[in-house]
């Protein structure tokens, strides 16, 4: 752990692409980033911050975690004392990899996985609070909820960033259409007309989101080390690169580990069930997009209709 | 629907192998069986009975359910008016296949699947009642709980049938050792010494419990027709046949459908998560038993240790 110098502190700024959680604006406490690709998350005082730090320490040294799974977690560089964004003075911050820093205009979804965000070890108060929110959102019905998002809609329109209240009111119908809009070239037009034209390159393919989700699923069917409560999958890609035909690999990272508990020899069935539900939704967008692209091709290859006088239309 | 004649009624009796639910003894209401392999379950008056009947009717005619999945459900023969076992007069009964009737001394586990038995559509009272029991048992921690069981221990000892209170107090540790005892030849000796000698033939093999669970899992990853709340897997086999070396196919049936609701295009992530957790437990018993049998073989094939004087021990 080290103390940041004030010249270094001057370089810190509010993250441009944070879609959920507390924002470091209007004198509030929130995470900061620098230009070297690091993300500074204030350690919450109620023990959650230390729990998250302890998770990263345990995780990084646990040899039971396979290498191909580590890429789904941000790199952690320990903790550091920094001036807090709310002006309250020096505060411990978790130093993490700024996972979206290499993207110019990322479209991002923060998907909180699991049909419950609470866990038996928590206090009754905490359980009731979580349960109430889990029932109010799609957590119970879908096994996951969208906790925040930004969709890049192009140079002129910029981002679609629904507010916290709107996000918390998302229904199953909304979630389904957001998963379509996320990979559509015409997302700004409206939900109904989403063309899902990027679905094959973002959700599909050997390096696509679906394959990554399936790789995670295989691990969750087996791992009994951790139970990831109230943890999110951050799913992101650069739409502009895809539009221009450049190779852009969509990414998934697990984030938010303040409520991780030991698995004690039992799989994380809560996370796994929700993950399988998300996989089903993503698969459906992908197969719908394939079907409609086959339909389009068949339509365009149809021979013209010949009229009685021999003219073809 | 038909009304049973009294001569027919006389043939009805209390099921010999019922391990959970209300028993038709001491003037109480419970299911009955006959000698032709039918199981008569009284329709509960609070609407649950009709919900279960409606499920069977919907399920039996739903062409989306694949044939290889139907074998995991009891056959339903509709409903019938019968004298209730508590002497209250004629009552509608669901007429089902008596799934264990062909077994002489079946070992049976009733495993209630899911990390919650409640569902959003239920009343707040019902939800709180279920939640409290889910937290008290292994439902929340394991994603399933053992709701009842009988283990056949041989001609002299008969069955081990723990009472309702004992079953409800099962911990994760108990569940793990019951899954071992279930496939052990020496189950009566005590938990610690379970030999798991039947694990390869009951849990393993192409027709074993594990393969059947995996077949169900594949369906649950895809099906969005039903959500099976508070539903059990009945797992059973005839230990005596296995001991004598006869081919005895272990069976799995899903039972208890009073709380099934429509899936509305979402997978049953609650059932699926619990099923995957059970699969992990069963796999572990199986791989432990394989390891110990390899170890035994290696031990027995070890060459004797030669002493200095050339004598081999």
Automatic annotation (TrEMBL), chains A, B:
One of its GO terms (molecular function) is ATP binding. Pfam families: IPK (PF03770). One of its GO terms (cellular component) is cytoplasm. Keywords: ATP-binding, Kinase, Nucleotide-binding, Transferase. Signal peptide: none annotated. Its EC number is 2.7.1.140, 2.7.1.151. Inositol phosphate kinase with a broad substrate specificity. This is Inositol polyphosphate multikinase. It comes from Gossypium raimondii.
């Amino acid at each position: 752990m080290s103390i940041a110098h004030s010249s270094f502190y001057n370089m810190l700024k509010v993250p441009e692409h944070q879609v959920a959680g507390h924002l470091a604006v209007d004198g509030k406490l929130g995470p900061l980033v620098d230009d070297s690709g690091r993300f500074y998350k204030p350690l919450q005082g109620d023990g959650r911050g230390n729990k998250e730090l302890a998770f990263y320490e345990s995780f990084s040294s646990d040899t039971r975690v396979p290498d191909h799974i580590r890429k789904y977690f941000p790199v952690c560089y320990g903790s550091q004392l920094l001036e807090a964004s709310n002006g309250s003075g020096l505060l411990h911050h978790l130093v993490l990899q700024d996972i979206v820093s290499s993207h110019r205009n990322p479209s991002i979804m923060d998907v909180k996985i699991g049909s419950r965000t609470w866990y038996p070890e928590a206090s009754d108060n905490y359980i009731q609070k979580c349960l109430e929110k889990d029932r109010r959102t799609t957590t119970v019905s879908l096994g996951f909820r969208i906790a925040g998002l930004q969709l890049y809609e192009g140079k002129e329109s910029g981002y679609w960033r629904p507010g916290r209240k709107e996000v918390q009111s998302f229904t199953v119908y909304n979630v389904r259409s957001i998963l379509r809009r996320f990979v559509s070239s015409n997302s700004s037009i409206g939900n109904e007309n989403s063309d899902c034209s990027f679905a094959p390159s973002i959700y599909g393919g050997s390096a696509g989101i679906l394959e990554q989700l399936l790789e995670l699923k295989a691990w969750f069917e087996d791992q009994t080390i951790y139970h990831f409560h109230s943890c999110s999958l951050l799913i992101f890609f650069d739409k502009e690169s895809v539009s221009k035909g450049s190779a852009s690999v969509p990414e998934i990272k697990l984030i938010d580990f303040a409520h991780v508990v030991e698995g004690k020899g039992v799989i994380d069935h809560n996370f796994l069930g929700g993950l399988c539900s998300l996989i089903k939704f993503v698969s459906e967008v992908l197969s719908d997009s394939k079907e409609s692209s086959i339909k389009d091709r068949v339509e365009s290859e149809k021979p013209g209709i010949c009229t009685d006088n021999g003219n073809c239309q």
